[in-house]
Amino acid sequence: MNYWEMRTALSKVIPRKQLLMDGLTDISKGWIKEKGRKKNYSEFDLMSGEWEKSERLLSKDRIESFVEISCHASECPMPLNLDVWDGLVCPYNCIYCFANQFRSSLYTSFFDNAREIGLRYSEPKEIWKRIKGYLDGKGEADLVKAFQNRIPVRFGIRFEDFLPIERKKGISLTLLKRLRDIEYPVMINTKSTIVAEGDYLEALAGNKAGAAVHITLLTTDDKLSKALDQHSPSPSARLKAAKVLSDAGVRVVLRIEPFGVFLNDEKGLTEDYIGKAVDAGCAHMTFDTYSYPAKWPGVRRGFEREGIDFHRMFLATSDCQWLGSYMLNKFMGEFRKAEISCSTFDFGSIPDNDDDICCCVDDAFKDVNFSMGNILSAARFIQSRRGCDVTWGQFDLYVEANGGWLSIPIKNKVHGYWNLDNNSPYNLSWVRGLKECGTDRDGNLIWTFDKKSDFRESLFNHLIGG
Amino acid sequence: MKQVSFNEVITAASALSKNNKAGGMKADLYFRKGKAFMTSSSGTVILKFSGISPDPGLVKFSILDYEGDEIKMFKDSVTFVTKGKYHKSKNVPAPKLEYMKIYKATKVLFKSKPFFEVNISDEVLHQVEEGLSHIEFSCVEGAFKITQRDIYSGAIINIEKPVTSGFNFEGDLKDFKPVSMRTSDFIGMFLVTDSMLFGFCDNITKVSSSRFRGIISNCKYDEMLNISTL
């Protein structure tokens, strides 16, 4: 069954909502949840006998450096994040972005001036001082190890680092240039076209260690794009930027995240996307389903304001992990037919990734070490043993021989995933083809890979056949 | 239809709004000349009550705001007054729609002619999985059945009565394609009354009992993602 047949079959399982009349549902309310902090709040202090202002304030212009090991380091081979820009709400304000929701809730809950902060940034000098320190072995141990191992540094994880204001301030640019000068590998996640302009392009293309840009592009359809991410550059502008970067030798990876069944997977639109991606010289793509945190009420309301049945899409793509995973896997198959290399962070589909790192950047950098001490790499390691039994000890040795663990807490977390200690979407049991085949003398699970096995396929066939 | 008391309408709306089985549905009430519409915040259920006594007049409010002995409308807001040793008044925004607007929008829908009618009692709820998002009704080879699809486990759940008459059908038992609705809408109806007639139409399902009649929007099996309005 091809993807389009599966899509039709699934439409008979999860139906679409219809409203009886307009005006019954209230989707007009603001989506930023503010948790009751008051303006100009004072408390009368009984001891001093005076009114005292009780405020907690965010710095309006500057942020502390966001150089960090990602909280997803136990699931990710590239967990070295560097974000320089920040704000209450990203001006792109894409309706599917739950980071906006999260940040707004966090900032307005704990600070009195969240509404006043605007866009703020880290001082490049300060960030650079820290990075130099890590490279010289000074600072937090996990960050020192990450930099000394030359794990590519990633911009754009928490926030868009290439908004129009960046052109004036040149904050990200300063760091890109410095990283280029020391030949340190860089990866950017963005929807901006600035990365394909002048100095930015030079800083990326001139980085001898390699540079990669993930350009998020959910659809090439202008109408759908206006509904989903109307304040971002248009699809054609993003594709044009992709072509410029690609022609300059920068690895460009188009990113469909989130992929949503019935949302951005219509056949004609997909064919259009593939054609335009190929024309723009893009040979690499990454995908992912909608993360579970997207089930934030404000995200749903954002979709419903655009007349989109969020619930249907979420059921088919995210709420049921195996189902979204299986649909995504087959969807990627359509892109592979056009010889586009595809990968995903979706755990069910890891064995089918066209590269080991899931970002389609395996071969985009020179002299780098990815962080192999994570559960995604564990799945690929088991797969690489071609049906042999694989123990935790073997994987541990493999990690130690390839840069080592970034920290003991990360190792412990990966160990938990390996042994299915918690009900987590990152457990090895979610990876298609992986099977438990016993325990070792320490009680750790032993795993093997059966390349023909896919638990999702039988579940799907049963679901649509009943 | 029997006359219903004002308190019965309030109780029905409260049941829908305060019970998790109704899927977080919140009811708004619109009264006019002894009649009332109860609308759900999901936009998928409207119930109509007639012969309400005592008649509260032209008032509208969200059931979650309701309290007290008197209800007074002031333009776009409503005030609830509780009398006693102390008087308490609570003023809240009123729902945005108007009784007549709902009346006009639903007039045609209430006239829809069902292609199949069946009486269902709350006994069936013992078999219904409230955690599954949708429930469908169909008649295949002369057998009426209720189906739920568990996307999480791949299971298909069919609920049938061994003796066909158990569901109390009206008219002939002809095959029809699945009609789907939100499980929470289906379960929610039984929070209002314990048995009612379901009449399946193309786009809606009509429900009626001795105390009310109503409409539930059917869900669509197609490959679109837009939320359409009937």
Tags for this entry?
heterodimer; A: 466 residues; alpha/beta; pyruvate-formate lyase- activating enzyme; 2 domains; 6-stranded parallel beta sheet; two-stranded antiparallel sheet; 15 strands; globular; B: 230 residues; alpha+beta; DNA Polymerase III, Chain A, domain 2; 9-stranded antiparallel beta sheet; 4-stranded antiparallel beta sheet; 15% helix; 40% strand; elongated
Overall description:
- The complex is a heterodimer of chains A (466) and B (230).
- Chain A has 466 residues and is α/β, with parallel strands linked by helices.
- Chain A is 38% helix and 15% strand.
- Chain A has 17 helices and 15 strands.
- In chain A, the strands form 5 sheets. In chain A, strands 8-9-10-11-12-13 form a 6-stranded parallel sheet, covered by helices on one side.
- In chain A, strand 9 (186-190), helix 7 and strand 10 (211-216) form a beta-alpha-beta unit.
- Chain B has 2 domains: 4-110, no CATH class; 116-217, DNA Polymerase III, Chain A, domain 2 (Roll), CATH 3.10.150.
- In chain B, a hairpin with a 4-residue loop joins strand 17 and strand 18.
- Chain B is built from 3 helices and 19 strands.
- The model of chain B has no long low-confidence stretch (mean pLDDT 91).
- The two termini of chain B are 26 Å apart.
- In chain B, helix 1 (6-18) packs antiparallel against helix 3.
- By secondary structure, chain B is of the alpha+beta class.
- In chain B, the strands form 4 sheets. Chain B has a 9-stranded antiparallel sheet, with helices on both faces. Chain B has a 4-stranded antiparallel sheet with strand order 13-12-11-15. Chain B has a 3-stranded antiparallel sheet with strand order 7-8-9, with no helix packed on it.
- Chain B has helices at residues 6-18, 99-110, 183-192; strands spanning 4-5, 27-32, 35-40, 45-49, 52-53, 60-62, 70-74, 77-82, 88-93, 116-121, 134-140, 143-149, 156-159, 169-170, 176-182, 195-200, 204-208, 213-217, 228-229.
- Chain B is elongated and about 65 Å long.
- Classes of the chains: A alpha/beta (466), B alpha+beta (230).
- The A-B interface holds A 7-8, 11-26, 260, 262-263, 266, 304, 307-309, 311-313, 315-316, 319-320, 323, 458-460, 462-463, 466 and B 39-46, 96-97, 101-102, 105-106, 109, 133-134, 147, 149, 151-156, 180, 182, 203-204, 215, 217-230.
- Strand 1 (18-19) of chain A pairs parallel with strand 19 (228-229) of chain B, so a sheet runs across the interface.
